[in-house]
Design brief:
- The structure is a single chain.
- The relative contact order is 0.19.
- Strand 2, helix 2 and strand 3 (57-59) form a beta-alpha-beta unit.
- A five-stranded parallel beta sheet has the order 3-2-1-4-5, sandwiched between helices.
- It is an alpha/beta fold.
- It has helices spanning 16-27, 43-53, 62-67, 80-90; strands at residues 6-12, 32-39, 57-59, 73-76, 96-98.
Length: 112
């Protein structure tokens, strides 16, 4: 999309949710979405996802993604218990996107 808006995304996680998000990014219209990074605790999964989606690179950790000034959005596609520490790193930079709660419900109970 020449001359149009573009969003550059770093995905943290390479499992089921990351795959769904990657497929969803392919369906976005009106804005060019560039998947710039995929990071995973399991490098082989990050490499497989990067190959599948044509991502520019794999990152060993979220810090690598955050160090890239071209990244507009950090998409957390990790289990809930990992959201809080990753969000704490991404929020100050204003580049967080996460589809789930960033921590346990108030009072520490389970959602109803």
């Amino acid at each position: 999309m020449a001359g149009g808006a573009r969003v550059r995304v770093g995905i943290v996680g390479a499992g089921f949710v990351a795959h769904l998000h990657g497929e969803a990014y392919r369906q976005v219209r009106g804005v060019e979405v560039e998947l710039r990074w995929i990071s995973s605790a399991r490098p082989e999964r990050a490499a497989a996802s990067a190959a599948h989606f044509g991502v520019g690179g794999t990152a060993p950790d979220v810090a690598t993604i955050l160090a890239d000034p071209a990244v507009d959005v950090v998409d957390l596609c990790v289990p809930n218990h990992l959201h809080a520490p990753l969000a704490v790193a991404a929020v100050p930079q204003g580049r967080l996107q996460g589809g789930r709660p960033q921590g346990p419900p108030q009072g520490g109970g389970r959602p109803s």
